[in-house]
Specification:
With about 190 residues, the chain is of the alpha/beta class. Helices cover about 35% and strands about 25% of the residues. Residues about 1-35 have low confidence and may be disordered.
C-alpha cells in the first residue's frame, strides 16, 4: 500500500515538472519510496543477511562470528523507552534458556554506542546491543519502513525478530512485533528448532 501512495505522489510531481520548467526536484516527491514496502526483507527459509556492527561491552555483533550456530536477532526502535525496555528485559530474563539451547541473542537499533552502553548498564543486559546508525542491517532484514504511532505515519525501524538456524537461514520471522509475551514466543520457537 505505501508503494502505491509513493507512486501517486511521484506522478503529480512529474506532471507539474512537465507543465513548468521552473518546477524542481521530482526526486523530493519520490523520497518516501525509499522505505521498503511491507514484507520486504528475507522470508522464512531465506539466507539471513550478513552483518557486522559495534556492540555493547566493546564487542562486535557479527553474523560471521555466529557461523554454524543458531541465533536470535531482534530490531527495536529506541533504547530505554518503555516497549524497548520491556522487550530487552524479557530477552535478558530468558537468556539462560536461550544459551542452554546454544543460541545467542542480539538486539539492534539505530542508537549510538553511548546510549546503548547506558541502556545495557541500567538494566544489566548481558547480551550484545548493536548500533546500526545507517540502517543498513535493518533494511537488509526488512526491519525499516513505514510505521504508524499515535495516528502519525513515519519511516523508521520496525520492531522485528528473526530466529536464524545453524545453516544461516531464517527459521522464523516476526514482523511488527507486539512486546508482551514475545520473548517467550521466540524461546518456544527456538526449542522447536531443536
Amino acid at each position: 500500500m505505501p508503494a502505491k501512495a509513493s507512486a501517486a505522489i511521484a506522478l503529480p510531481a512529474k506532471a507539474s515538472a512537465a507543465k513548468s520548467p521552473a518546477a524542481k526536484s521530482p526526486a523530493k516527491a519520490a523520497k518516501p519510496a525509499a522505505a521498503p514496502p511491507p514484507g520486504a526483507g528475507p522470508a522464512e527459509g531465506d539466507r539471513a543477511p550478513a552483518f557486522s556492527l559495534p556492540a555493547t561491552g566493546g564487542r562486535t555483533a557479527s553474523s560471521e562470528a555466529l557461523k554454524g550456530k543458531p541465533f536470535v536477532v531482534y530490531f527495536y526502535p529506541k533504547a530505554d523507552t518503555p516497549g524497548c525496555t520491556t522487550e530487552a528485559c524479557d530477552f535478558n530474563e530468558a537468556l539462560t534458556q536461550f544459551k542452554g539451547l546454544g543460541l545467542d541473542v542480539i538486539g539492534i537499533s539505530r542508537d549510538a554506542m553511548p546510549a546503548l552502553e547506558k541502556f545495557a548498564a541500567k538494566y544489566k543486559l548481558s547480551f550484545p546491543l548493536a548500533s546500526d546508525p545507517e540502517n543498513a542491517t535493518a533494511q537488509g532484514y526488512g526491519a525499516w519502513g513505514e510505521k504508524v504511532f499515535m495516528g502519525r505515519r513515519s519511516i523508521g525501524l520496525l520492531r522485528s525478530t528473526f530466529l536464524v538456524d545453524k545453516e544461516g537461514r531464517i527459521a522464523r520471522a516476526w514482523k511488527r512485533v507486539k512486546v508482551d509475551g514475545h520473548a517467550a514466543e521466540v524461546l518456544a520457537a527456538a526449542k522447536a528448532l531443536g
